[in-house]
Design brief:
37% of the residues lie in helices and 21% in strands. It is an alpha/beta fold and 153 residues long. It has one domain: 3-Layer(aba) Sandwich (Rossmann fold). It has a 7-stranded parallel β-sheet with strand order 5-2-1-6-7-8-9, sandwiched between helices. The protein has a two-stranded antiparallel sheet with strand order 3-4. The longest helix is centred in the middle third of the chain and has 18 residues. The radius of gyration is 14 Å and the shape is globular.
């Protein structure tokens, strides 16, 4: 199984690396391989270079969004994942969406920072991701499409 972990640069990517540490301990080396994507060039996790995906936000406009979808599709084709797991922000949401429309599994892990409500991207992800997780138990209680499995941090 090939797993693509996606997180925007900064706190999202820090949570992604922590999540990777937990996942890597749980799976046997031969049963899963990991690749990474972020919005910052030159990043790597344990020597594995991360793909660079477009840094886009909801105010970027439709032209930028369409360009980001095209670039994100290139990342998806290059990584060839069976599962995409995102720790947040719009670039990860795009890759989760593309994963779903191409028949892959998508998992959304909303940021630890969103303790009052799901992020804007998380609110969208809950409609199409196979699993949508919050790191705050009370947020999962309010929505059947969102689950709480614990905290990444």
């Amino acid at each position: 199984m090939n797993i693509l972990l996606v997180g925007s640069f900064g706190g999202h990517f820090i949570q992604l690396k922590r999540l990777y540490g937990q996942l890597a301990q749980e799976v046997e080396q031969c049963s899963a391989s990991f690749s990474f994507a972020s919005t910052e060039q030159g990043l790597s996790v344990e020597g594995v270079p991360a793909y660079c995906c477009p840094n886009i936000h909801r105010g970027s406009g439709i032209k930028a969004l369409l360009s980001a979808l095209r670039q994100s599709y290139g990342v998806l084709k290059a990584a060839k994942p069976d599962v995409v797991i995102s720790t947040g922000a719009l670039p990860g949401l795009l890759l989760c969406f593309l994963a779903k429309v191409t028949g892959k599994k998508a998992v959304w892990v909303d940021s630890m920072a969103n303790y009052q409500q799901l992020s804007f991207s998380g609110k969208i992800a809950r409609f199409f991701c196979d699993v949508c997780l919050t790191q705050w138990e009370h947020l999962a209680a309010n929505d059947k499409r969102v689950s709480y499995w614990g905290k990444v941090l």
